[in-house]
Design brief:
Blueprint (H helix, E strand, L loop, with lengths): L1 E12 L2 E13 L4 E5 L6 H8 L7 E6 L2 E2 L5 H11 E5 L10 H11 L4 H14 L15 H13 L5 E5 L7 H18 L2 E6 L10 E6 L2 E2 L2
Parallel strand pairs: 3-8, 3-9, 6-7, 7-8
Antiparallel strand pairs: 1-2, 1-4, 4-5, 9-10
This protein binds adenosine-5'-triphosphate and magnesium ion.
């Protein structure tokens, strides 16, 4: 599903070059729930952005579904992100002027699916994350855990091939964080989506099929 071959990402600041990621090779088969753990600044978000095609590697190759992302046109990458990749972030990133149901429905509406079908699917996904009772609530009326569940439903409604989560429990207390990890680890395999979750919390490793440890931009053997 995803393969990284000797991937590096450098940031240049004046004459100084900082390698946020270097020599990273990794293969994640379809259907795997993969956890990447590492301390702050170890390159986790950089790695996730490369997998999401939101950024391009300075060296090496990122393969998604057998295609080298660097060889894809911008148009192909835009469709890939819209149709094949679901993203979940620490900050939830819900649109404040849309209800829970509307936030979940949005990716489907962008795919120009019929409104009645989209509404039904949105309600099914709200049910799957246990939020039927919050369908008409605004984001500011939701708790952090509820907001993240809306974000997860929104990420999964397109039935993506790949779900990428960057520190999804970072804004939650430990009990709420545990609920979110449990939900992801239950929903993702059920929907067959390949998942990569990055976090600084070593506790999260037990939720994955496999774990990669990052340190100073390199894989810790
Ligand atoms: N746009 C950028 N310009 C310059 N340096 C950057 C940029 N983005 C990230 N970095 C640097 O790259 C390194 C890795 O950053 P990254 O955000 O991937 O770490 P992280 O593991 O996600 O950390 P955190 O747990 O704090 O989110 C850090 O040293 C960071 O300062
Ligand atoms: Mg990060």
């Amino acid at each position: 599903m995803i393969r990284l071959d000797d991937v590096g990402k450098a940031y240049r600041r004046g004459s100084h070059t900082l390698w946020a990621l270097r020599g990273v090779s990794l293969e994640i088969p379809a259907g795997e729930f993969h956890v990447v753990v590492g301390p702050s600044g170890s390159g986790k978000s950089t790695l996730l952005h490369l997998m999401a095609t939101l950024d391009v590697p300075t060296e090496g190759t990122v393969w998604l579904d057998g295609r080298a992302t660097a060889a894809c046109s911008d148009e192909t990458l835009t469709l890939l992100r819209r149709d094949r990749i679901g993203l979940v972030f620490q900050a939830f990133n819900l649109l404040p002027y849309l209800t829970s149901r509307e936030n979940v429905a949005l990716p489907r509406l962008l795919q120009r699916l019929p409104h009645r079908q989209v509404r039904r699917e949105a309600d099914e996904w709200l049910d799957a994350v246990g939020l039927t009772a919050r369908a008409d609530h605004w984001p500011h009326e939701l708790s952090g855990g509820e907001a993240q569940r809306v974000a997860i439903a929104r990420a999964l409604i397109t039935q993506p091939r790949l779900l990428l989560a960057d520190e999804p429990t970072g804004n939650l207390d430990s009990a709420r964080g545990l609920e979110i990890l449990t939900l992801l680890a239950t929903l993702a395999p059920k929907s067959g989506v390949t998942t990569v979750l990055v976090t600084h919390s070593a506790d999260a490793a037990r939720f994955g099929h496999r774990t990669t440890r990052l340190r100073d931009g390199r894989i810790d053997p």
